[in-house]
Amino acid sequence: MARSDPTSRSNYASRATRSALALGVLALENRLWGYVFTTVFLVKLATLGGTILAMAAFEIRTGDPSRGRSSSSATR
Fold first, then answer.
1. Cα dist. 20→8, 25, 31, 37, 42 in Å?
2. Which of 2, 13, 59, 63, by CA, is between 20 and 30 Å from 31?
3. Which pLDDT tens digit goes with each residue over 14-60?
4. DSSP string covering 17-37, please?
């Protein structure tokens, strides 16, 4: 499984922030595309957020959140 580095994670976060601001401006100007894309963006954000929370829960459950697997399986 590919892991993302901190640089790419911050890049994704800045893209999401810029997208949210642009969509907010379009929605405030009562443009149809603002409402359409904002709905799509919110659904995507909700599913991605759920995925990240589930991933974090599984990593914490395994006992080693920094590596994503338990320390006992790393020694095998």
1. 18, 9, 15, 10, 9
2. 13
3. 777 788 888 888 888 888 888 888 888 889 888 988 898 888 888 88
4. HHHHHHHHHHHHTT-HHHHHH
47 token code pair: 């599913």
- Is residue 37 within 8 A of residue 31, CB to CB? The reply is no
Tell me which amino acid residue 52 is: I
**pLDDT of res. 75:** 52
Please list the alpha-helical segments (H only) found in the chain: 6-28, 32-62, 71-74
Tell me the C-alpha distance between 20 and 17, whole Å. 5
